[in-house]
Amino acid sequence: MLSSVQLVLLATSVSAYPWVADAVEGRPLDERSLSGFWDTLRLGAKDISQSLGGVLKAQNDGKMKALGGEIKKGVDWIYAQANATEGFEGWPKPSLLDKSAADLSQELIYQTYNLDRVSNPPIWPIADEGHPYVAPGPGDVRGPCPGLNTLANHGYLPHNGIVSPDQLVRAVWEALSMSPDLGAILTVAGFVFKGDIDTMKLSIGGQVRGAGVGLSQHGTIEGDGSVTREDSALGDHVKVSQQRLQTYYGEIAKYGTNGYDINPTVCAESRYRAYQDSVQNNPAVDFSSTRHLIAYAESGFAMEVFRGANVSCTAETIDWFFNKEQFPPGWRRRNTPVTATEMIAWGMLFNKIKPTEPVRGLGIKGHPVKAGSSFLSEGTVKSNIEKFSGGLIKAVPKAMKYMAEALGQSGPLAGLDG
Ligand code: HEM
């Protein structure tokens, strides 16, 4: 959902940009800045109407209750499965909530969530046992998320890429150890903003009749400054870019531990490079405070989710997931569930290593303006979770209320969001 700051900025852009910036910089008004200006308007207006569409849909109490009911089915299954698993050490406690960016380090996060793989033998089965890879066929949709594409290729999600809320929450847990708090929040955002809440189906790719506009649609969830995808204004924002992948592998070789293992510096540097690319080349770059927070947290997926139960996460691991969209041979998910708290903590750590600011392009390449403050460099893990979920609570309160009920006020994850 666009924040009030973004709305004000967009309104300002209508009356003031890009002429103000040109005047400030002493540059003549050229054709490029004018076309960038119209691009900005076009994209901004589309984003607003899409987000508002989701907000309006989410007013329907009956539909939101049904969405919550679907999520609950998935969550109940997960709790039962986890608790019946021998060696499962329980749900992580939200002990990092009071930490600020200055307090965070890889060692602290590893200690808190028991992520030392050397002394923790894997407890979950090999990912493709019973879920072999099948390449997508002509009728199957795939989208901008390497995680969900892989899950559909292995049949954790329906192979055609059209999913229900229950299937989505379950699959990200069953195949990748994503805890229900994080799975449910992404599911709510996906269904409300990009899915069809009459049929309760969502396309993980482009628009499909009866399954919404799909996750590939730019705006609200899919955004600019992705590590392996182009910005929608500049190229293909859905398929992985081979050029960006090569750049990413170069970053792993340069900054990785022992020259091959992804660490917080790799995540921070690759995120910074993707951001700079958008800032320099996309006149309509949209990297709001919320997008900033999500994009940094998303970088934690490479650090910790694709690593699975392995000690190292290498360029080869990334190639399997991002390029082949398959599980690496023999791959197992990590023992400890991946919660929203942990992902926000990683995002704050990466931004501490290589800070950036939220920006919005108002039509001139290389000269976006500051768009709100960076949540990640201020406050605590708790306040950042509140900023993230608080935005959704304000925008789609009924959906979030039923989601919280599905997670269980007194269940194992109670209190995880502070
Ligand atoms: C539960 C539901 C999920 C939804 C609705 C979802 C949706 C999305 C969307 C729309 C994007 C594009 C965002 C962008 O423009 O950068 C994305 C990116 C991404 N997703 Fe997911 N995702 C989900 C779960 C996962 C899981 C379980 C993983 C596993 C690790 C994952 C890994 C990633 C990564 C690494 C990216 C960034 C790609 C890049 O920067 O190039 N996602 N996801």
TrEMBL record:
Family statement: Belongs to the chloroperoxidase family.
UniProt name for this protein: Heme haloperoxidase family profile domain-containing protein
Domain Heme haloperoxidase family profile: start-end pairs: 129-345
Residues in coiled coil: none
Organism superkingdom: Eukaryota
UniProt-listed PROSITE patterns: HEME_HALOPEROXIDASE
PANTHER family: HEME HALOPEROXIDASE FAMILY PROFILE DOMAIN-CONTAINING PROTEIN, STERIGMATOCYSTIN BIOSYNTHESIS PEROXIDASE STCC-RELATED
Gene Ontology molecular function terms on file: metal ion binding; peroxidase activity
Cofactor: heme b
InterPro entries given in the database record: Chloroperoxidase (IPR000028), Chloroperoxidase-like_sf (IPR036851)
Keywords, comma-separated and alphabetical: Heme, Iron, Metal-binding, Oxidoreductase, Peroxidase, Signal
Signal peptide: 1-16
